[in-house]
Amino acid sequence: MGAPYELAWYGCDLRTGAIVEDLPVLKPTGALGRKLGATTTLQFDLALAGASIDWEAATAPGRSMVVAVDQATDIPLWAGAVLPRDGGSSTTVQIGAATLECYLDARYPGTQSLVGMDQAAVVSALVTPALSSGPPIVIDAVSTGVTMDYLTDDGDDRTILSCLQEVMSLEGGPEWTIDVAWNSGHSGFVFPLRVRSAVGTQATSPEAVFDYPGSVAEYTLSESYEQGKGATRVLARGEGEGSSRLTSSPRTATALIANGWALWEYRFTPATGVTDPDQLAKHAAKTGDLMAQGAQVWTVQGVASESPRLGRDWTLGDTIRLSVDHSPRHPAGAELVARCWAWELEPSANRVRPILVEEG
User: What is the biggest distance separating any 2 CA atoms in the chain, rounded to whole angstroms?
Assistant: First the structure.
């Protein structure tokens, strides 16, 4: 049996990442979590009795961030910029924080013409304006070997986050996430922005294994063919109206339909300002491939102290094995290797929850 999760919380300067104050009385009111290419949020209570001397500076909205470190491994697991803070006659102060993807939603890429560039270089160029007067984000972009064109116009008012999410949603698009790590002096933190064809480590036989019964208290397989989750024909549409509206060619799951599936149609507008037919086609292709057989998401409720250790044994984007000996849903058992697209950690409940998504 491993050690329970005990988190050390630090209040840090947003611009430099330097630790301002330990925050031993800062308590999250829910589970902390991460998700590929997206912001997650967390709420806290800070008890004023016993609060550190500089707690106000360490939690100042817009100027600070809070960072969680696993005390058993000394690995930083979560970081969030402090946004709201409320307090008055109560003995506690309420604080809200969001992972640093939120910062990219408050910065703009400007006008850029990125033609014939590697996907990783495109992401790097879009993020570069946020490196000026921003948090200590360090770009860690590995060439994907795939080139693309991407144009931005400052007049469209699209944020860096919206651009990066659009690039990631293209067929064959690169993945990205913002991690947190100790700085070289172990006196604060830096934020590597990872850009890969696929973030994390993908293995057919991963070392991180969650077993039921065993380290898994319970699990759920959620399957859905609801609107927006399942379709056998997908069409991406640009902005505008009527016959002048830019439209992709349809992405049709012809093999499924030939094998007896019904035709389910789905039309969507992937992002504002898309004027490139090739980009629309890539949006339709990726969305169509993901939706063809519907959504299949496994949520694993692991006993945190008995499961593979988050940050050490597995992390965001890694493949994880779920081994079910038997259960009411799977009486003959089930074996699954799938990628962790998101995770949640709730130390007070001794629970860790990797969210596993089956991909095609």
Answer: 69
